[in-house]
Write a structure and sequence with these properties.
The structure is a homodimer.
Chain A: E1 2-6, H1 15-28, E2 32-34, H2 48-62, E3 65-69, H3 80-91, E4 95-99, H4 106-113, E5 117-119, E6 122-124, H5 140-149, H6 168-186
Parallel strand pairs in A: 1-2, 1-3, 3-4
Antiparallel strand pairs in A: 5-6
């Protein structure tokens, strides 16, 4: 069984290293980890971004599940590319699992970036648009996708010292994947 | 034919009004517009967010296409919920169309929020993570999803005065949908 390893990890200076570490952890649980191709394509090629897209899509089509790193990235929500991939895999009926290394909820995170006011029972951001206030970690579509098509978002009790390299919650997702996918293999 | 109308429009103070306006424009082009349920559910209900998720997913399953408002929202990228829905619809093989009312590219937008440095031929953000530098409007997964499973992202030449209410680029998406979907109807 193959698991697509989505996340902004591809943007880390040591992306290849963390990709390899995640793949090793997959192997420990009996899975093949597929790490996005962002770092395996010659970035100078005129169609580099298209090559990456096609490669990542082919890997997603080939995978049985996704484990998405939904740790907030450049704003209060998860990385857009990772969220796209979560949706794509849910649309294809694959097992969707995700984790965030930031245990704060969405409202608390928006407040880190802008002033949030309470008006007529709604929370309103600096842009004048409402702030979703369901006590969830991110936009409800992401969170309930996990609830209904996989397992609830995995988060640590406390924010780890190294937000981008701590793999405890990733490993917890692998354990869930092992429970969900391996009985099917044995049938 | 039905089109799912994704976007952070649901968070606007006049969300119901803009939803109605978009649905009218859909009708003008021979389509039924399906607007997300975020504003049609009693927010005080204990399972309000789950009701919204289930309702939105059912509408997406029922729709033939999506038009996603990918105008940047609370950061340099599009709204996470909208991006999730774009991915979901692509995964289900539906026609995916999208627009952004901000014509700036991703690198320029990241620079509005943080300092970006050039290191060893890569752009690095304040968080130490690389900034995608393909001259695209957002993360490559979103942009090439549109290119390969729909039509290129529609953007205005200039940022409109009212970023959240200007519907010119939305209307351009409807025209593309009419070209792509209505010939099939006639077959």
């Amino acid at each position: 069984m193959k698991i697509y390893l989505a996340g902004p990890d591809v943007f880390l200076p040591d992306a290849l290293l963390i990709g390899r570490r995640k793949a090793e952890l997959c192997a420990d649980h009996g899975f093949t980890g597929l790490f996005p191709l962002d770092n395996a394509v010659a970035l100078a090629a005129h169609d580099a971004s298209l090559q990456i897209f096609r490669g990542n899509e082919a890997m997603m089509n080939d995978a049985d599940a996704i484990i998405a790193n939904l740790t907030p990235f450049r704003g209060p929500s998860a990385d857009a590319g990772t969220v796209y991939e979560l949706g794509y895999m849910a649309g294809r009926g694959k097992l969707v699992l995700g984790y965030s290394n930031d245990p704060a909820n969405y409202v608390a995170r928006v407040k880190q970036f802008e002033t949030v006011e309470s008006r007529n029972g709604l929370l309103i951001g600096a842009d004048g648009l409402a702030v979703e206030d369901f006590g969830l970690a991110d936009n409800l579509m992401l969170i309930h996708c996990l609830d209904l098509h996989g397992a609830p978002l995995v988060t640590p009790r406390r924010r780890p010292a190294d937000l981008w390299h701590d793999l405890d919650s990733f490993t917890a997702c692998l354990q869930i994947a092992a429970e969900r996918l391996r009985p099917q293999q044995a049938r």
